[in-house]
Amino acid sequence: MEVGGPGFVVMAGPCAVEGAEQLELAARAVAQAGAHLLRGGVFKPRTSPYAFQGMGEPGLKLLVDAGRRHGLPIISEVMETEQLPLMAQHSDILQVGARNMQNFGLLRALGKLRKPVLLKRGLSATVQEWLNAAEYILAGGNEQVMLCERGIRTFETAMRNTLDLAAVAWAKERTHLPVIVDPSHATGIPSLIAPMSLAAAACGADGLLIEVHPRPEQALCDGQQAMSPGDFATLMQRLPGVLAAVDRHLWTPAGPAQIAGAR
Ligand code: PEP
Ligand code: MN
């Protein structure tokens, strides 16, 4: 799978893997809607130490199995260097969370791997700090780095964070790295995820990372911002129109021309 080419890539799934049934419902829904990768946290960086911290290794096994069943590669967060051997063996993309953007030991360890890394922008990081964090991974020789804008802290409190779409266009202009947008953490409001996803597609992002939960009201993590499977499916149907306006298309294994020709 190519990220950063003409094909626009959509990664979706629950904030956290909570159990076999929840994950299967989420994976089936996002796969049927046309997502390209399955997301799911098994090590969760929670603000409170008493909140659900993720299922750990058993959750990772569920994620791997669900991805295989539905033909989707997986992306999951690695929080600590000690988790790297396990995560690097099983996760197709290693996510570095916003809170770890400047965990230089972790970044250096990721630089030694030859696996794709999605590096989230820190809660209050400037774009320059974000690029320097990416440089830690690249300098180690791991060239498969994608940036992820997930909203930053500003004086605004109406939304969970402030989505900095100009930073997406800025990073696309000044670096060769793919840029993914996470409208879920950026807004914290389900009804804003679709419009911000379309805006991200319009401004040059290379893909999306979206939280989808089969029963948002029962979620153990980030349920208040989870998109319903139905709303996600509607978004997937609307994306191609916006992408076409900026000469892009949803990623497909063969590319749209070959698929059209085969029909
Ligand atoms: C997440 O993707 O669930 C997550 C914890 O995101 P962030 O690091 O952007 O807060
Ligand atoms: Mn989350």
TrEMBL record:
Keyword Transferase: yes
Gene Ontology biological process terms in this record: aromatic amino acid family biosynthetic process
Domain DAHP synthetase I/KDSA: 7-236
Pfam families per record: DAHP_synth_1
Key words of the record: Transferase
Gene Ontology terms, MF aspect: aldehyde-lyase activity; transferase activity
Cross-referenced PANTHER family: PHOSPHO-2-DEHYDRO-3-DEOXYHEPTONATE ALDOLASE (PTHR43018), PROTEIN AROA(G) (PTHR43018:SF1)
Protein name, as recorded: Phospho-2-dehydro-3-deoxyheptonate aldolase
Taxonomic placement: Bacteria, Pseudomonadati, Myxococcota, Myxococcia, Myxococcales
